[in-house]
Amino acid sequence: MAFFVLKEKEMKLETLMTQRTDYKELGLVNTKAMFEQAMEGRYAIPAYNFNNMEQLQAIVIGCAQSRSPVILQVSGSARKYADPIFLKFMVMGAVQMAKGLGADIPIALHLDHGDTFELAKSCIDSGFSSVMLDGSHHPFEENIRLTKEVVQYAHERDVSVEGELGVLAGIEDEIAAEVSHYTRPEEVEEFVEKTGVDSLAISIGTSHGAYKFKLKPGEEIPSLRFDILEEVEKRVAGFPIVLHGASSVTAEHVEMINRYGGKLESAVGIPEEQLRKAAQSALCKINIDSDGRLAMTAVIRKIFTEKPEEFDPRKYLGPARDELISLVKHKNETVLGSAGKA
Ligand code: G3H
Ligand code: 13P
Ligand code: ZN
Q1: 339: left (phi over 0), alpha (psi -120 to 50) or beta
Q2: Is the pLDDT reported for residue 176 higher than 70?
Q3: How many distinct structural domains can be found in the chain?
Q4: What is the predicted pLDDT for the residue at 2?
């Protein structure tokens, strides 16, 4: 009997490694219910990017401790870095870890800035519950065509799809956008209708990375274009909107990095009050990557400077992970409003 149970287990593992994996087998959910609840409760689901074990643990622990639903977000290059198979099992482990912490929070795994059908398909086939097809740098019709192709494949497998209209300045994975342009609200209805996407990323003045604005001395950070967001909300009422490039570039971490030998000059992000306001609108998903990178880097730099004799990775990656846990809880509790919603 025990032999057969073991054999069955072995076969399940074999299937998970080699064949198509349904995200439900990993204990994940798609974004449908998350977005419906966020829309109704007027808060935003956090989408945190990760590349490695410590980041993934910190995001899941932070969300488990603050009882927040979460979208684990992976770019194409992050997936390559971690290795697609390793990533799948790491995420499966993270879901089980959350359960072990007594928190059965909804967890989605999302491809960030997917640029081809093949990449989106490969992610769906290896257990992602949500994918983005970012065709924002293509002409409108081509963006529709590419996005729709992904939607068809994804929806047959109950996987959510995010599209994008409007271009953010900065680096979007391998896509470098020199010039940004805001989303044109008049294009939104047609795009949503023709593609069948489940959510839409829009461009209202954010950008990726730690340098979001070039400010002259004494100049204030400009406001996000809430007028565009409102216009989009009117045209597609009740439809989930996504905000990329939403890091606040925490001054404390930038100062720490610079104090301990780093060189981040005039790094600046989106003020928290603006994100708080955005989270209460139709914005259901807020993307954060740079803030996590800064938090970990700041702590590691401090430890390397203060304890140059240290060479055990646990002694610097551990405190860096703790800092990221605090950051995640802070965002969920005081900015996005997602804490306590899971
Ligand atoms: O929007 C892009 C994300 O911040 C991921 O960037 O390609 O460096 O992983 P990455
Ligand atoms: P930040 O660089 O502002 O963290 O944006 C991350 C993002 O939009 C990932 O898609
Ligand atoms: Zn992005």
Answers
A1: beta
A2: no
A3: 1
A4: 62
Q: Which of the residues 112, 115, 289, 291 is marked catalytic?
A: 112
Q: Which phi and psi (to 5°) does residue 124 adopt?
A: -60, -45
Residue 8 lies in a domain: no
Give me the domain span that covers residue 219.
24-336
φ/ψ of residue 238, rounded to 5: 80, 5
CA 286 / ligand 1 centre spacing (Å): 14
Q: What is the mean pLDDT of residues 107-118?
A: 98
Place 19 in a pLDDT band, splitting at 50, 70 and 90: confident
Residue 63 corresponds to which amino acid?
C
Angle in degrees, 0-180, between the axes of helices 226-235 and 272-279, rounded to the nearest 10: 10
56 falls within a domain: yes
Please list every protein residue whose CB sits less than 6 Å from any atom of ligand 1: 49, 75, 77-78, 112-113, 172-173, 208, 289
The answer to whether 289 is a known catalytic residue is no
Residue 329 lies inside a defined structural domain of this protein: yes
